[in-house]
Amino acid sequence: MDTKDIKVCVLRIEGTNCEDETNEAFRMLGASVETIHLKQLTSDVSPALRRSLEDYHILAFPGGFSAGDYVRAGAIFAARMKSALAGDLQKFVESGKPVLGICNGFQILVELGLLPAMGKTMSDFPQSALYTNDSARFECRPTFLRHDNRGRCLFTSQIPQGKVLMIPSAHAEGNLKFPSDMQSKYLEKLEENDQIVFRYVNPNEDEVSYPWCPNGSISQIAGICNEGGNVLGLMPHPERVMFRFQHPDWTRSKECPDGAGDGRAVFQSVLDSVKKSF
Ligand SMILES: NC(=O)CC[C@H](N)C(=O)O
């Protein structure tokens, strides 16, 4: 399959605000991308606007403040999606098609029960929460992430394990929490299943407290995937560092001769995996 034949759905509702840069991140790498509203998948729009999940190879939930972050960030988007499309979504994931959730998108995946999805494709209710940051305020800054995945995640096959990337964060509810009596059990399971993808670190990897970890997430987790490796949720925004000049540190040019920013590998990896498997 050619990259141009890969159909990407960037899905939004009222309050989503990173759909354009997420669309552009896939488009600039050659995929055919469409930004659509959830209504086009779920309700009576004109036939010309009507879409179906099976029209696409990749589903992306971008960042933003969907439904104004009312109730909990991502909760309303997830509820509207689950009530109308749970079966289609489950089929999409079980077919191995990739699903990407960035920031508000990660919150939507947690609220949908698609992550961490311990032992199931989609849990009946959320098995974790992206809770208010420990600082109780919106945190927005460059963040350093160590790639801790051992090869399961389809979105990071081009990133060496242990590599530290700069991918910026901007959120108020990024504090990954598991049910209190299950914290160590969930963490152990995620490690064993190779579902931990990114952790916050500082550049020398010797400091992981605030502000390097902006939210207080358990084990400084910034991103996790499902057991199949085809669903990734992460709080930082890879679509905001597609180019070298988007990095605050200009000396990086020697590290990214092709002008790529650290976020580009996330999009390139998943496009390559779709080319190979569909
Ligand atoms: N940049 C985003 O997607 C923000 C996500 C969510 N609105 C929060 O503040 O946590």
Task: Explain what you see.
- The protein is of the alpha/beta class and 278 residues long.
- It has a single domain, classed as Class I glutamine amidotransferase (GATase) domain (Rossmann fold, 3-Layer(aba) Sandwich), CATH 3.40.50.880.
- Helix content is 24%, strand content 19%.
- It has helices spanning 19-27, 39-42, 75-94, 104-112, 183-192, 264-277; strands at 7-12, 32-37, 58-61, 99-102, 129-131, 139-141, 144-147, 164-166, 169-171, 175-177, 196-201, 221-225, 231-234.
- Strands 2-1-3-4-13-12-11-7-8 form a nine-stranded mixed β-sheet, with helices on both faces.
- Helix 3 (75-94) crosses helix 4.
- The radius of gyration is 17 Å and the shape is globular.
- The protein binds glutamine (GLN).
- Glutamine (GLN) is lined by residues 63-65, 69, 73, 103-104, 138, 170-174.
Topology:
Layout: E1 7-12, H1 19-27, E2 32-37, H2 39-42, E3 58-61, H3 75-94, E4 99-102, H4 104-112, E5 129-131, E6 139-141, E7 144-147, E8 164-166, E9 169-171, E10 175-177, H5 183-192, E11 196-201, E12 221-225, E13 231-234, H6 264-277
Helix pairs in contact: 3-4
Glutamine binds near residues 63 and 170.
Describe what is shown at a glance:
The chain has 278 residues and is of the alpha/beta class. The chain has helices at residues 19-27, 39-42, 75-94, 104-112, 183-192, 264-277, and strands at residues 7-12, 32-37, 58-61, 99-102, 129-131, 139-141, 144-147, 164-166, 169-171, 175-177, 196-201, 221-225, 231-234.
Kindly report how far apart the N and C termini lie: 7 Å
Q: Output the structural class.
A: alpha/beta
Outline: globular
Mean pLDDT: 95
Q: Specify the biggest β-sheet.
A: 9 strands, mixed
CATH architecture: 3-Layer(aba) Sandwich
Number of helical regions:
6
Radius of gyration: 17 Å
The CATH superfamily title: Class I glutamine amidotransferase (GATase) domain
Bound molecules: glutamine
CATH topology: Rossmann fold
* Sheet with most strands: strand arrangement: 2-1-3-4-13-12-11-7-8
Any idea of the CATH class?
Answer: Alpha Beta
Low-confidence stretches: none
Total number of β-strand segments? 13
Number of domains: 1
**What share of the residues does DSSP label as strand, in percent?**
15-25%
SSE string, helix = H, strand = E?
EHEHEHEHEEEEEEHEEEH
User: Percent range for helical residues?
Assistant: 10-25%
